[in-house]
Design brief:
globular, Nucleotidyltransferase, domain 5, 33% helix, 260 residues, 2 domains, five-stranded mixed beta sheet, 7 helices, six-stranded mixed beta sheet, alpha/beta
Length: 260
C-alpha cells in the first residue's frame, strides 16, 4: 500500500488527542502515534487546532487520504449533538464541515465508541463475525457500538438503558467501581444486571467489552452469567484510531463512487 493512500485516525479524548496513519492491510498504525494534550478549554476551535497539528505531523496523509476523527458524543450528519464529557460549545456544532474547511481534507467525524467497535470488527475481537455485535466501552461512562452484519448503526447510546429504574451508566461504569471502591465481585453483580438488560433488549450474537479495564477482563468477565458470548476487546487503546481510519476509508470510497 502506498503511503499516500493511508487514512489518518484521530481520537479526541478528555485528556489527550491522539492520531496515527492506519495501515488497512494490517490493522495497525503505520507510524508511531502522536499524542497532544487536550486544551484546557476544549472548544471545537481549540481542538481543531490540535487536530491540525497532528495532521501536519503526518505527511503521509497528504493528497486524497481521508481523516477519521472520534468525538465522545453523538454525531449525526457531521454535527455533534451531545457533550457529556466535553465542552458544551460542541452541542450542535457542525464539526465535520468546519474541519474539512480547516484541514482541506475529506473528514469523517464519528462517535468514539462507534469507531472502537468498527476497529474491533475489522481487526480485533469481532473480526469475521457476521451477526449482531455490541461493543461496550467501560470507562468514565458506558459507550456502545451496535454493528449488524458488518454495518454500523451509529450513536446507539445503549449505556443509558434502564437499570433498577434509572440510567445504567451511573450504576455500572468502571468509574463507579473505582469511585465507590467496589470489589470485582460487587461490580460484576452490577454488570450482570446491565448485560442481562442489554441482551434482553436487542438479543445480540456477541458482546465485546472494551475500555481500559478490559485489560483486566479475567477479573470480572468469568463472574458473569449471561446467554450471549462476551469477550474482551483486543485492540485496546488503538481501537478508536484504527476504527476511525476504517470508517474514513469506507466513507471516502462511497463518496468517490457517487461522484463517478
Amino acid at each position: 500500500m502506498s503511503k499516500k493512500s493511508l487514512p489518518l485516525g484521530i481520537d479526541v479524548g478528555g485528556s489527550g488527542i491522539k492520531g496515527a496513519p492506519v495501515d488497512l492491510d494490517k490493522g495497525e498504525f503505520a507510524a508511531e502515534r502522536l499524542r497532544i494534550e487536550t486544551p484546557e478549554k476544549a472548544t471545537p476551535e481549540a481542538v481543531a487546532e490540535v487536530i491540525a497539528q497532528i495532521v501536519d505531523h503526518f505527511d503521509d496523509v497528504r493528497g486524497d487520504s481521508p481523516i477519521g476523527i472520534t468525538i465522545p458524543g453523538v454525531v449525526t450528519h457531521g454535527t455533534v449533538r451531545t457533550a457529556a464529557n466535553i465542552d458544551k460549545s460542541w452541542i450542535d456544532f457542525p464539526i465535520e464541515s468546519f474541519l474539512e474547511e480547516r484541514l482541506g481534507h475529506d473528514v469523517v467525524v464519528v462517535n468514539d465508541a462507534d469507531a472502537a467497535g468498527m476497529g474491533e470488527l475489522a481487526f480485533g475481537a469481532a473480526k469475521g463475525h457476521e451477526g449482531l455485535v455490541v461493543m461496550t466501552t467501560l470507562g468514565t461512562g458506558i459507550g456502545t457500538a451496535l454493528i449488524n452484519e458488518g454495518v454500523l448503526v451509529p450513536n446507539s447510546e445503549l449505556g443509558h438503558i434502564e437499570m433498577n429504574g434509572s440510567d445504567a451508566e451511573p450504576q455500572a461504569a468502571n468509574s463507579v467501581r473505582e469511585n465507590e471502591e467496589l470489589s470485582w465481585e460487587d461490580w460484576a453483580a452490577r454488570l450482570q444486571q446491565y448485560y442481562t438488560a442489554l441482551e434482553n433488549l436487542i438479543w445480540p450474537d456477541l458482546i465485546v467489552v472494551g475500555g481500559g479495564v478490559s485489560k483486566k477482563a479475567k477479573k470480572f468477565l468469568p463472574l458473569l452469567d449471561i446467554r450471549t458470548p462476551i469477550i474482551p476487546a483486543e485492540l485496546e487503546n488503538a481501537a478508536g484510531i484504527i476504527g476511525a481510519g476504517v470508517l474514513a476509508a469506507q466513507t471516502h470510497s462511497k463518496k468517490s463512487k457517487k461522484k463517478k
